Amino acid sequence: MEATYLKYLLQFKRPSGTSRGVLLDKETFILTVSEQANKGIGECAVFRGLSFDDRPDYEEKLQWLCENINQDKAILKEQLKEFPSIWFGYEQAILNLRNGDHLYFPSEFTEGKSAITINGLIWMGDEEYMEEQIQDKLEKGFHCIKLKIGVDWNSEYTILQKLRQKFSKNQLELRVDANGGFSKDEAVVVLQQLADLHIHSIEQPIKAGNWDDMAELCAKTPIPIALDEELIGIIDAEKKKKLLEVIKPQYIILKPALVGGFSGSDEWISLAEKHNIGWWITSALESNIGLNAITQYTFTKKNPMPQGLGTGSLFVNNFESNLELRNELLRFKI
Fold first, then answer.
1. 116-332 shares the fold of 2-99
2. CATH match of 2-99 with 3.30.1330.10
3. Catalytic residue among 137, 146, 148, 240
4. 148 counts as catalytic
5. Is 61 a catalytic residue?
6. Given this model, what pLDDT does residue 17 score?
7. Distance of CA 138 to CAs 122, 133, 163, 176, Å?
8. What residue ranges do the domains of the chain occupy?
9. 188 has which bridge partners?
10. Which residues of the chain have pLDDT under 50?
């Protein structure tokens, strides 16, 4: 078996705002493995400024993988444990090599018989831009919308109030994602305001790494709290277990590219379910290659909640995709 990689820069159609700043482009790496006439493709979807493996020797490690692709899988996993997005790409490439034809996890989904319900994501911006996005999602038939918050809370709160006045919690599920944008004291106030509006949940209200503060918030919160960035960089199984036992969140959010691929996600899911913690899966600005693999994996987990999957529509130079969105349902074209 041989392996090569290609660096690729995805360009946003429109600058996309989060509490960490405005994104103009997204660097990623495409891994190709080949064996005789067969090829497998995966995406090593590093997220600069967020991934645990955003480090200077990233490409060096990726080249090491290509040169050692025939090593035992256990050896590769140990060598790549601090490079979750590279391991994510490796898992995809090997699965695709085995299954071929854009397939990673063959199922009723890839046969075109079933679909996945997703939430509509609203990016940060001025009030007019956010309301424009919301109206678009509602017209397309979404019943679950997630808003990025934490930059201008007064404006964001006004938008949420308007939405809730128009649509009851039974008509529209609202989720918010703060990306660690609030202090602990601010979060206490915000959580109550969100509860008054019957918001489904909030992702990462305060910055990751403050376990005691997050545990206190989770213990007293009037709405469910979901951990997101908190999971990044937690590699050891015992530390994962300890994090869940200390913080006791209501949910965890799994981004395979950031938590060690499919095997890393499986480990988190197993621990969460043992502790009666809910979960759902979210993409992290992958190209259509990684998004396709994550979507196929997500279907196999049979979680009935709306999932946080992208649609590949954010970039002007994305790869061709077998995924298509019909209303709020993500489907695989055959």
1. no
2. no
3. 148
4. yes
5. no
6. 61
7. 11, 9, 11, 16
8. 2-99, 116-332
9. none
10. none
